[in-house]
Each structure stands twice: as structure tokens, then as C-alpha cells.
Design goal:
Layout (H helix, E strand, L loop, with lengths): L1 H25 L1 E2 L7 E8 L9 H16 L7 E8 L4 H14 L4 E3 L4 H14 L3 E4 L15 E3 L4 H15 L5 E6 L2 H14 L3 H4 E7 L7 H9 L4 E5 L2 H14 L4 E4 L6 H8 L1 H4 L3 E4 L13 H13 L8 H20 L2 E2 L1 H8 L28 E7 L4 E9 L6
Helix pairs in contact: 2-13, 3-4, 5-6, 8-9, 9-10, 13-14
Length: 408
């Protein structure tokens, strides 16, 4: 009997120990995470040549405020630290070092822009700090072999360039193509994608290509050069300020090519309105999310959630801005990853969760589109649809195009 009591007591003690150990084992933290807080850092061009993107950061901060008001993520509030880097890589380096070494964030989220992300990519990978959902589509940010701690969010620029090339070959097989591109990884990737997509025809179809620097005050001379070369298709691989200048200058010159604009510069408020809505009519690009200005989505549940969020948490923001829908969607995905981390808030687990997404559908994803990643494929968005500006809003056309090839 005494032996029976001994064994029962021992078994009970073991059972209690086993039931307690998983709970304690699940709580794993790296710098920047505690039982009550998750520290996340970001740089945003609140000023400078790419300040049109500032609203993205504002929308993201508003979304995180909403999450915190609703109790946070798994009971933890997010401490979201944002610094202005003015889209200047040296400033990005300074601010990201501050985030990592002084603020001690768990991860960086949505650092905005290709040059800023490139400036800190090696540093963050050496430090093994997640460069999560970088706001760029350059191929170097979806390269798990060389940069395992970096994952981009935007569709791959080379993929996008190849899609435009396919569109041109099908609809304008005899086109004379003029290309404007930003002289950095963003522009170079688009140029590579376009040439790859055109294949052997690139040499004969591309009649002129010209670049600009972020520090350039205008691109008037570049537009004059492309027009003078006789281009009747204009591939514009630029960012908002310069895209608006390009549209306006082309109109001033009376040059009316088929104008294909990259996905980074499709904002109606930040690009097309300043350039002139009539001047912008007919511009072609791609999309991978619902457009609030499109009446197709007026009864859509996801769109209703977005509009309610904007009304309550970012009332000063332009609800129709694709930059704000981008900010909403990227932050929704961030929260999804953090939820999946549970009580294992280590930097490694953040990357594990971000690189094992399966058919994730966000509120503003187009029907038929979802996000999937793997340890060997860091591309979140691999599906696009063509769209055309009608003078008032963007209108999607054609099928959803999915890129299943290599990320580069």
C-alpha cells in the first residue's frame, strides 16, 4: 500500500512536471520581446525625394495602434519605433543601427525603398536581425542563400519586367521601346526583366534607354531623349516623384507613347494627380490588391474592414490611395506572422514563420491571389494582373499572371 502511494505520488509529480514544462519551454525570447511587449523598428522617408511613401508608414503605425487597442498580439503590445531616413542610404544605416543597438528591436519591418534596404542588408544579416517584408521588389531581397535574414514583400521587379515584355510582344510586336530607369537595384532589375522577357528581340525593339539619379532635380532631358529616339512604347521604371515628372513632360512635348509604369508609382494622389489626370489617361501597370476607388469592391467584406480602419485610425489619410492599402496589407501580414510565432518570439522563429506561409489571403488580396513562401522561395507575391488608368481610376484587365520561375 505504501509502495502504491509512493508510485502514485511520483507519477503525479512527473505528470505535473511534464504538463508545466511545455508551457515554460514555449516562452522563448530574443532581444526586443518580453511577456508584455514586442519591439519593432522601421525607417520611412517622411521627408526627401520619396516622401510620397510617408503615408505607408503612417498607415502601418495606425494599423499597429488598432492591434494594440484590441489587446495586441498574443497578449503583447507592439512598440513600433519609426525613424525618418529621407530615403538617404547613409541615414538609413545610422537609423537602423540605432534601432538594433540602442532601441534593441526584435526585428525591422518594411524598411521602405530599394537603396535604403540595400544599405543595411549585410549589416542586418550579420547581426541576424530579420529584415522582414522589405518594401522593395529587387531580387537581392528574395535571396535566401546569400541573405537568409532578409525577405521582401513586393512582387519581384524582374518578374514584373518580364510580364510587361510579354504584354508588349503580344500587343505591340513592332514597338520601338524607350526605357527610363532609376540608377539602382530597382531600375536595374526592371531593365533586366524587360530585356529577358523580350529575348532576342530586345536588341531591335529597344531604341533608347536612359537612367536618372535620385538626386536629380528633374528628368526632362531624359524624356526628350526618349521621344527623340522615336520610341512609341515608354517603359517607365521609376518612383513617384519622377514618374509624375515623366507623365507631365511627355504631355508637354506632345509625346503620346504607350506608357507602362512600374508598380511602385501607381498612386493616383501622389503621381497621377500631380502629373494631371488627363495626361495620365491610358497609363498601364500591374496590381495585386483591391483598389478602394473601384466600385467592384464596394460590398466586399475585406474592403469594408479597410475603410472602417481608415475612418477610425487614419482619418487624415487618403482612403483611395494604393499606398495606404499597401500599408494596411503589409501590416496585416506582419501581425499574422507574429501570431504564428506564439510564445517563441526569437528572431529565428520570426523568419521560420515568414518563410513557411501557405496560401495566405489578406483582406485586400484580389480573388484568386494568395501569399505562399518557403525556405527556398522568399517571394510573398508572385501573382499580378494588368491594369489601365482611365482618367479617374485604375481598371484591371486580363487574367491573373503567376510567375513560378526563379526569383531572379
Amino acid at each position: 500500500m505504501r509502495n502504491g502511494i509512493f508510485y502514485l505520488a511520483t507519477a503525479t509529480a512527473v505528470a505535473v512536471a511534464l504538463s508545466a514544462s511545455p508551457a515554460s519551454a514555449q516562452k522563448k525570447y530574443d532581444t526586443g520581446a518580453t511577456d508584455t511587449e514586442i519591439k519593432i523598428g522601421q525607417t520611412v522617408p517622411f521627408s526627401g525625394p520619396a516622401s510620397a511613401y510617408a503615408t505607408i508608414g503612417k498607415a502601418q503605425a495606425a494599423y499597429i495602434k488598432m492591434v494594440n487597442d484590441e489587446g495586441g498580439v498574443n497578449g503583447r503590445k507592439i512598440n513600433f519605433i519609426q525613424y525618418d531616413d529621407a530615403y538617404s542610404p547613409p541615414k538609413t544605416v545610422e537609423q537602423v543601427r540605432k534601432l538594433v543597438e540602442s532601441d534593441e528591436v526584435l526585428l525591422t519591418f518594411q524598411l521602405i525603398g530599394t537603396p535604403p534596404n540595400a544599405a543595411v542588408q549585410k549589416y542586418l544579416n550579420v547581426k541576424k536581425v530579420p529584415q522582414l517584408f522589405a518594401a522593395t521588389g529587387a531580387s537581392r531581397f528574395t535571396d535566401p542563400k546569400n541573405f537568409p535574414w532578409t525577405i521582401g514583400f513586393n512582387p519581384n521587379y524582374q518578374t514584373e519586367g518580364r510580364i510587361y515584355a510579354q504584354y508588349i510582344l503580344k500587343n505591340y510586336p513592332n514597338a520601338k521601346i524607350g526605357i527610363l530607369y532609376q540608377n539602382d537595384d530597382l531600375g536595374h532589375d526592371y531593365l533586366t526583366g524587360m530585356k529577358d522577357g523580350l529575348g532576342d528581340k530586345a536588341k531591335t525593339m529597344i531604341v533608347a534607354e536612359t537612367s536618372y539619379e535620385l538626386s536629380d532635380p528633374t528628368i526632362d532631358s531624359q524624356i526628350v531623349r526618349l521621344k527623340s529616339a522615336g520610341a512609341d512604347v515608354f517603359f517607365d521604371a521609376s518612383t513617384p516623384k519622377f514618374a509624375a515628372q515623366a507623365i507631365k513632360k511627355a504631355a508637354d512635348l506632345g509625346w503620346k507613347p504607350v506608357h507602362i509604369l512600374d508598380i511602385n508609382a501607381v498612386s493616383v494622389g501622389a503621381v497621377l494627380q500631380p502629373a494631371g489626370l488627363e495626361n495620365s489617361k491610358g497609363v498601364i501597370s500591374t496590381i495585386y490588391g483591391k483598389d478602394p476607388a473601384d466600385p467592384t469592391w464596394k460590398d466586399d467584406a475585406g474592403m469594408k474592414k479597410y475603410l472602417a480602419f481608415m475612418a477610425k485610425y487614419y482619418p487624415d489619410g487618403d482612403k483611395d490611395s494604393l499606398f495606404n492599402t499597401y500599408g494596411y496589407s503589409t501590416t496585416q501580414l506582419l501581425i499574422e506572422v507574429l501570431k504564428r510565432c506564439g510564445d517563441d518570439l526569437t528572431r529565428q522563429n520570426v523568419m521560420n514563420q515568414a518563410t513557411s506561409l501557405k496560401n495566405v489571403k489578406l483582406d485586400l488580396s484580389l480573388p484568386g491571389m494568395s501569399g505562399t513562401t518557403s525556405p527556398t522561395d522568399y517571394r510573398v507575391n508572385k501573382q499580378l494582373q494588368m491594369m489601365r488608368f482611365d482618367g479617374e481610376r485604375w481598371q484591371g484587365f486580363g487574367p491573373i499572371i503567376e510567375d513560378t520561375g526563379a526569383s531572379g
